[in-house]
Specification:
It is a single chain. By secondary structure, this protein is α+β, with helices and mostly antiparallel strands. It has a nine-stranded mixed β-sheet, with helices on both faces. The protein is globular.
């Protein structure tokens, strides 16, 4: 047992060793959670080690090359495309604080008239001391377009304050709404309803605030006392109702609130029903809801009298994500194995078609090819598509990996809507679709500055890897078109697999340079996400969480066995709960990985879930299970990354963590790293700067990293520099013999069940 000076010995014995389910559970590093003062010396030491690593001339050269090229490739646009909000066109204009943190100046005009500034954060006196860290989280506009309310994350730690002001006045109201997650104006333009969070950052109250009064005078409209439920405030597209969802991932209660009279509350669905994701109200047709009621996956129901009937049930493989309602059409955003699509349904005759976005339009510069802006493309539907998304074979598609997100699209009676499209090779294109004319136009492209990126030389490919139980796991590869299966490719494998959240394939400005440097980027769509619907999530939760880990190991083994990479060149990346999966996979098969990147990682799973006082514990029972149940306790104990560290050679590991992170607290990271350094066997396969090839990058932010684009680029540059060093200069494994020798059969998971033990 490790004894730290200044700690009470009897308390140490009591806290470090507990009898749980008849088993002695020992946690030598418990004091890092119980004694916050013990963290600062570790923070100082880890920062010193990190700085020493990045100050090495050869490493500084790698960093500078990445950073200069990546930061030089800025988005050349100066403003967003305007979106129509009643009679006004609103848009954001890109700007920077003196600290380098970027933000948007919100502007508006009447039908293309003279621009008027709605909000410039730089001009608000109260915010000046926070310019380096603040983020604008949300902005709401009153119905008369005279007032705005907006949320500010001052310290980039998800602790949000809401401010209010008249649009024609730079001064904000004296009253500020603290602990406020979301807010919206009532129809009289004199009140705000807002959700307030508790000391665990759980939105649990709906409050009514009268403008001009203090927060202490606010009236409670609803309170959710069950700690597994949290509140989500929405508004129907026609502006008639607020919709309050009191929800978990599995069920919720739906409450309608009249915007004319916010004290008038109606329970639409009780929490005994299945989950309701979204509610829309149509002036003629009544309510439309997105729900998994009586269904494994989401579908759309339509109100008919006092009951609801099926309006649209997804076709095989479709996973509905978003619904947008217009006066004559319903627009559905859905995915198939993480690929994004749009479906349009007429409310009058139920004509249904999928909106096809041609690769030639995505990869054409609209500024140089304006003749291609309008295309009649509605006649192609996915059911006739030959791209074979669900066959167990290689699938290659120029727009594979596309992520589509709806625009604001506030105007309910509009026949035009906007959406945004990104791929790993294309950043935030803005499209507009005319529902009456069935015409698509590309309004805006990213127009990256700096070194030109030859995206025509790269592509995305889909493969399927067998997991331990034989389930085929999709893998998306982003790579040079000349990729060879010669085992000599540097490969970074991303995964998440939790909370029913799919593994997206986002655009990353630093990854463009990584591709140019020969990296292949892989994305494993493992169970625990929702790539194949709710069942894909449910297959890997609670007592079956191990399946996420087995899926990731199966993907790693497949990529090695097929010759796409080699264990001396394979790296993994997981963020938050995705790092739980990666951390467990590294413990089980450290020989498969050269490096592991863990961003804001959740590593002390068992210790965290045994403490009901932590912010997310009770809601996390739905995902990981409650360890007060012996079966769940044993399951978590078998894979939790912290508990399963052992005396063996580990890959090089880079971890980022924030001092203000309440989701994956810093103590949970430092417990892991302190134990890792004590127990890991020193590697002879890498050049070591310091005692171990481990870097802990600690920042002052929260769970989602630094504030602003520059901080994000710097963080990504640091971990890519780390990877480039350890698979390159610092890699002692790379020899012609090691890269071309036959693969040991032991890396093929399907043939060796004894390698993954449920401890």
């Amino acid at each position: 047992m490790i004894i730290k000076r200044g700690l009470n010995f009897s308390r140490l014995i009591k806290e470090a060793s507990k009898l749980i389910h008849g088993r002695q559970y020992i946690d030598h590093y418990w004091y890092l959670k119980s004694n916050p003062e013990s963290l600062q010396p570790l923070i100082d030491n880890e920062t010193k080690i990190k700085n020493s690593f990045f100050d090495q001339p050869q490493i500084k050269e790698i960093f500078n090359d990445y950073y200069q090229i990546s930061y030089g490739r800025k988005d050349g646009r100066t403003h967003d495309i305007p979106e129509l909000y009643d009679e006004y066109e609103y848009n954001g204009r890109f700007a920077y604080f003196d600290t380098g943190n970027d933000y948007q100046i919100i502007e508006r005009s009447l039908k293309g008239g003279e621009k008027e500034v709605v909000l410039d954060l730089r001009k608000i006196q109260f915010l000046k001391q926070y310019h380096a860290t603040l983020k604008l989280t949300k902005l709401k506009i009153s119905d008369d377009h005279k007032l705005i309310a907006f949320g500010i994350d001052l310290l980039n730690n998800e602790d949000i304050v809401w401010l209010m002001k008249y649009i024609d006045d730079e001064r904000v109201f004296r009253t500020k709404l603290f602990d406020c997650f979301d807010a919206a104006f009532t129809k009289d333009n004199q009140h705000l309803v807002y959700t307030q969070y508790d000391d665990k950052f759980r939105p649990y109250r709906l409050m009514l605030h009268k403008l001009g009064t203090t927060q202490e005078d606010d009236e409670l409209l609803f309170e959710e006392k069950d700690e597994q439920f949290y509140l989500d405030l929405q508004q129907t597209k026609d502006g008639k109702y607020f919709v309050l969802l009191s929800q978990t991932k599995q069920s919720n209660e739906v409450i309608l609130i009249d915007r004319d009279n916010p004290k008038k509350v109606q329970v639409l669905f009780s929490r005994k029903e299945n989950a309701i994701n979204l509610v829309h109200h149509h002036e003629k047709h009544g309510l439309y809801i997105l729900t998994n009621k009586n269904s494994y996956d989401y579908k759309v129901l339509k109100q008919e009298g006092d009951s609801f009937i099926d309006f649209y049930c997804p076709q095989q493989g479709e996973v509905l994500q978003e619904v947008d309602l217009f006066h004559q059409h319903l627009v559905l955003y859905f995915t198939k194995e993480s690929e994004s699509f749009i479906k349009v349904i007429s409310l009058e005759n139920k004509e249904t078609y999928n909106l096809y976005i041609p690769p030639s339009l995505v990869y054409t510069d609209h500024q140089k090819n304006k003749k291609n802006l309008l295309r009649n493309i509605y006649d192609r539907v996915i059911k006739n598509d030959k791209s074979q998304y669900f066959l167990n074979k290689k699938v290659e598609n120029e727009v594979l990996g596309a992520t589509i997100e709806p625009g604001v699209n506030h105007n309910y009676k509009s026949d035009i809507f906007q959406f945004h499209l990104s791929t790993p090779l294309v950043y935030d294109q803005v499209y507009q679709y005319n529902l009456q004319k069935k015409q698509l136009s590309k309004l805006q492209d990213a127009n990256l500055t700096g070194k030109p990126f030859k995206r025509e030389e790269y592509t995305c490919t889909r493969y399927y890897a067998p997991s331990k139980d034989g389930t085929e796991i999709p893998i998306t590869l982003v790579h040079h078109k000349g990729l060879q299966k010669n085992r000599q490719n540097k490969l970074l494998l991303h995964s998440y697999g939790a909370y029913g959240v799919p593994q997206e394939i986002p655009f990353n400005i630093v990854y463009l340079n990584a591709l140019e440097k020969g990296w292949t980027l892989a994305y494993a769509h493992i169970r625990g996400g929702n790539e194949r619907g709710k069942d894909w999530h449910r297959q890997a939760i609670q007592e079956n969480k191990i399946k996420s880990i087995e899926d990731l190991l199966g993907c790693a083994a497949y990529l090695i066995a097929e010759g796409y990479t080699h264990p001396s060149l394979l790296c993994g990346l997981g963020a938050s709960a995705g790092a739980t999966t990666l951390g467990a996979a590294v413990n089980m098969r450290p020989d498969l990985w050269k490096c592991a990147i863990m961003l804001s990682p959740f590593l002390d799973v068992l210790g965290s879930l045994l403490d009901e006082n932590l912010p997310l514990t009770k809601s996390d029972y739905l995902e990981f299970g409650n360890p007060n149940d012996k079966k769940i306790f044993d399951t978590i104990l078998s894979y939790s990354p912290y508990e399963n560290l052992k005396s063996q050679v580990y890959p090089a590991i880079y971890i980022s963590a924030g001092t203000g992170d309440f989701r994956a607290p810093l103590w949970n990271v430092l417990k892991y790293t302190e134990k890792l350094k004590q127990i890991a066997v020193k590697s002879k396969k890498v050049e070591i700067i310091g005692d171990h090839p481990f870097i802990i990058d600690i920042n002052d932010g929260g769970h989602y990293g630094g504030a602003g684009a520059q901080s994000v680029i710097e963080e990504r540059t640091r971990y890519m520099t780390f990877l480039d060093y350890y698979v390159g200069i610092g890699n002692k494994e790379i020899t012609k013999k090691s890269l071309t020798q036959d693969i040991d059969e032991s890396i093929q998971l399907a043939d060796e069940e004894d390698k993954i033990q449920k401890q």
